[in-house]
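Entry for fructose -6-phosphate complex. Fields follow.
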Amino acid sequence: MKFIQTKTYAELSHKAADIIAAQIILKPNCVIGLATGSSPVGTYKELIAYNKKGDIDFSDVTTVNLDEYVGLDGSNDQSYRYFMNDNLFNHINIDKNCTHVPNGCAADLAAEGEAYDALIKDLGGIDLQLLGIGLDGHIGFNEPDDVFVKATHEVVLDESTIKANARFFANEDEVPKTAITMGMLSIMQAKKILLVANGKAKKDIVQKAFFGPITPQVPASLLQLHPDVTVIFSEE
Ligand code: F6R
């Protein structure tokens, strides 16, 4: 594991974008796993700037996102599809047909999960997976549990996740209580993992996840077993 500590969030975002840009330069038709939330927003801004300058080309890139709220479609400005369009896809030269986010409005979420895993397999797996980390150690929306859940699946969000994400909604009651998330298998099978975490509030969970015991009660701790993980942490 490579652990990079930066002074500022800007520096974290710059380094994360450089790693993603390097992946795209080395393999222009790569598959990149993407995350939402506040942590990667600066990284996406940097990637947009690189693309506008002509330094990286997204025309052959495919993306697969980690998760989506159940019941929110892409036109809902709180959905993760909307977030991705707004924070990245609308501003770069990517083919939107090659950007994938689980469908939180699927009538059969179990079938949607199976189809999502099959899609990732058909794409040849994920070359680089970008992750944030929740205060309870979740990655994607793989919440603390008695087991690591392998497949893409529906999940009931933890109270702490609902509280943390309420800042994006008018009030806590509006935060969906369930989501669909990529499971631990597709994440662990990604060739490279890049996890970004910023803010003093994340310090303890980063410590637990990467230097504590490997347990499904801290889902990110499984990343200790991945052969190519880079963690970028900034206390700012
Ligand atoms: C979202 C996701 C989540 C977030 C995590 C941290 O797609 O995968 O695991 O990365 O909840 O969110 P922020 O960055 O808002 O602290």
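NOTE: The chain has one domain: 9-188.
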